[in-house]
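Notes to self after the Tuesday call (sharing in case useful).
The group wants a holo model before anyone commits to mutagenesis around the pocket. I volunteered. Ligand is flavin-adenine dinucleotide. Logging inputs and output together so the record is complete.
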Amino acid sequence: MDLEADIVVIGGGMAGLVAGIRATEEGMKTVLLRKGQSATAYSSGAIDIIGYLPGGTVPLGSPVEGLQGIASMFPFHPYGLLGFTDATSDTVSKTIVEKVRTAVSWLKATLLGSSIPLFGDIDSNLDAVTVLGTVKPTCMIQETMWPGSLMLDADSVALFAGVRGFPVFNPRMAAQVFLEHQISNRLPPRKAGHHVLDLAPFGNNYNISSIEIARYLDNEDNLSVLAKTLKKQAERIGATHIALPPVLGFNRARENQLALQDLTGAHVFELLSFPPSVPGLRLQRGLETAFVNGGGTLLVGHHAKMESLESNIVKEVTAVGPRRNLKISTKAVVLATGKFIGGGITGTENGIRESVFDLMTVSESFRIATSITPQKLTNTIALTHMGHPLFGSGLSVDPQFRPITAEEVHAAENLYAAGSVLAGYNYPAEKSGLGVAIVTGYMASRNAVDYVKGVSA
Amino acid sequence: MAKYDVIVIGGGSTGTAVARDCAMRGLKILLLERDDIASATTGACAGMISSGLKYMDEPNIVDMCSDEVVNFKRIARHVMEKNPIITPLLEMSDISSGGNFAEEYSKRAETRDVPPVLFLTPEDSLKIEPTLNPDLIASIYFEEYFISPFALCMLQALDAKQHGADIKTYCEVTDILTKKGSITGLQYFNRITDKMESAKTKAIVNAAGPWAHKIAALAGAKLELRLNKGAHVILDRRVVNVGVIAKAIEGRMIYLFPHENTVLLGTTALDTWEDPDTLVASQDEIEYLLKSMEWVIPSIRDARIIRTMEGVRPLIPTWKIPEGDVTRGYEIIDHEPEGVSGLISFTGGKLVMCRHMAETATDLVCKNLGMESECKTHNEPLPGNSDDVDILALAKEYGVSQHTVERMRARRGSETATILELTCDHPEWKTTICTCEPVIEAELRYAIRATFPQTLNDLRRRVRLGTGPCQGTFCTFKAAAILAEELELSGEDFQLEIVDFLAERWKGKRQSIRGEQIAQEELAQGIYACVGNLDQALEELDYDLKPWEEVL
Ligand SMILES: Cc1cc2nc3c(=O)[nH]c(=O)nc-3n(C[C@H](O)[C@H](O)[C@H](O)COP(=O)(O)OP(=O)(O)OC[C@H]3O[C@@H](n4cnc5c(N)ncnc54)[C@H](O)[C@@H]3O)c2cc1C
Ligand SMILES: Cc1cc2nc3c(=O)[nH]c(=O)nc-3n(C[C@H](O)[C@H](O)[C@H](O)COP(=O)(O)OP(=O)(O)OC[C@H]3O[C@@H](n4cnc5c(N)ncnc54)[C@H](O)[C@@H]3O)c2cc1C
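Result:
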């Protein structure tokens, strides 16, 4: 045996890292394998818990409200599973809300001292503004992304500022979309201007990426030019708030935000953006740092390989790295391999498959999907609030988050699953991606830890 | 009310060719296209301007095709490419029935500047195309020309415009007016102004492809078509070095053709009665093509399928014979004998014949109008075909990658330098907007200003935006912002452009979705739904469902 662990976590996105950090906190010897990049790093960095009920079109005022709806209508939703306890039915929704609150508060506390403190809680959803100028409900955002009083203060004026040669963000169109949306909802601001900054990070004036700008701004000296122009432009239109693409830095984002606010006198914030997403990467890095600092072993570039499940207990995982194969003995496994982006779930013309253990997969409506053609799980409409069932397919788990077989028994006694590898929720439509990953990662980890403690005792 | 000598209905290869020919002969022309230039059958075709390979038993058509290749090389070489093609034989019976193919092809090879047909040993075949099934016993080698159907139509339309024609896209003909059996004009709905408009004319050329019978009916004339659906599966890159032709499961011939940055696997041929606007490739068609090609390219399923593409062939109505036996020639029908004077319609034809079809039709129009004229379309170059383009020098001069410049050249020919010149005042326009193709911002701005796109989908046809493996995941919102700036769109219309474009891409992605393309789609949903929240915006945005999106 090359390595010994109490718990092996397969997958290093939000779900896997939450599970890993929690396990180390419980004193478990934890090894986490991350094959490649994760959807977590591609995310906007805003943490959605639940923005719309499944199939719903009304933005939820708070995650709590959404969780209560799920408790009564969608018992097999990953959040719904949290309610399967010995308690009586009238406490189900309370149980769910409390479990989510625990996991979310824990995450917030974990990231408190980091370079990405979070803002928000499950008692209300926030309106976050995107680089398209659209608004979406989300639960928590990094402090640098909070728009402050922009949409509350009747006298607020927004300045959308982009960077010349950075094509992701067009400040003129974003300002227009945002203003049209706010006006039609009779909300502030009444005025929004736009400006394009000549930043030329590292001397480049075209094909600029968000990563390049963030690295550039991680150097304190580079902020002053930006501040000067922003101040002038903000004064030109009387802006009280300045919206920037999320490029304020990897390490110094918060300091830069505060410094810019000082220098311009306006509230400065980062918009939600698309991959490559600096806040997504900040989140990924922040979690990995917390895991490693807590004593966890992180193996990046290693993928877990298993022969299919023969026995009822997983005792060993093989980590395949670039030049080596590591055999890791373990007492429990958390499978957090993500969906199609992460690679936990794959689809061919022959069906939807789980990629590590070849576990049974189900569709969003819990029909066995192992031999359903992916196309059959899609709608004719590209973008719809109903989502595509394909992205709600994955593993079916028992209330302990153990994947189940066609016979409806757990595939292995000590195998738990978390995050987007699970079926039964449609994160692009519901706006629940990172939230489900956090909460299920937290719970799967707790169950795995309990199991390990149980067998060790 | 505007008055025209001739009004052409349809902006596919046929209609744009007719408009160009008529305009070059000095006629006052209006072309009306319901959608965009090359948005229907023409946009779905493989772009092969074939030597007539499939119709070796129709020698006059082979002659015509061969001549047309030579004509295209004269007028449009900048949007053409030549591809070697291999037909591997796994058994003797794989030789297609037209046994005199080699002879007929070789007879005309020299005029087209290609070698005669060669028979290759298995070793030589595999050297040229290592992905072939190693069990082959021999192969047949020849070369064919291809043209970009979008570029050809656009250039024909632009050339017609330069010769004084009015080209109106998004104008759907709704009625044809007649008086005592003669055409007097027509009415159309202008989707840009949202108004009914009309125009006067005594001559209408009906080049509405698979809708031609409906246009004829508007004038009270009769036209029959045999409509035949064809689908392609598009692979993400050039998975083969050369074109490959193979015998399909029921004995038809199918192909794998390099096409721009991709490879086309096609095609099916199914008699169809469906509305061409709602058509999508079926599971059966996709599997038929894969299964058939798998015999000669065993690794074909490892390739990443990016989407499907389908169109309807407006064939000459001959019945009770297989589709493959229907003549690939064309007919021009003058509806005068049935009492509708001034209306002429096309049936049949091919992309390769479009110039020829236009010439014959224009001759007839001129005769009917009592004027003498001479066709010049085969001699005068299309825009952008003037000089050679020095890719290496331009790439160096403007600091743009050679690949980007080469792809630009393949679309714009000698205009490439003009486009790159824009980056002197705007260095930021060197930014790559579509990374798959690639397309830089300068070319998008230029295409918007010079080629009258109304939508992002039109822009796709101009510059191949969003046609690569990512299918618009990363370029849609960027390009939409540029279009919105140039056309001064509202925030709402900017969002609608994004949604419309994604809807059109999804139409082709959905049917074949599998493998990597699912992860790609998760990314797209992540961007546009999860973060952008556009899935929720649809109702607010006043989005109209597309024909293929309607479910009962
Ligand atoms: C473009 C985009 C934007 C998004 N924005 C948001 C947002 O703003 N807010 C929000 O809440 N949600 C957002 N989401 C959704 C959210 O990112 C995901 O739902 C969430 O990150 C899923 O986390 P996960 O840990 O389950 O999976 P992932 O983050 O995908 O992690 C899976 C991990 O497993 C690893 N892995 C897979 N197979 C193996 C193997 N065999 N061995 C070892 N490792 C393996 C992968 O390399 C990866 O590290 C977005 C998604 C996308 C695509
Ligand atoms: C799968 C496939 C592959 C093919 N491959 C090749 C090939 O490799 N080589 C080759 O030579 N040929 C090929 N063909 C054949 C070729 O594509 C067609 O013959 C040719 O493109 C037909 O052009 P068209 O202009 O007649 O029709 P279309 O391109 O269909 O144009 C007709 C136009 O009329 C418009 N219209 C309809 N109604 C109205 C109205 N009421 N008002 C205004 N406008 C209207 C439509 O919007 C449309 O744009 C292929 C065909 C298919 C289906």
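Two things stood out.
Chain A has a mean pLDDT of 96.
The first helix of chain A runs from residue 14 to 25.
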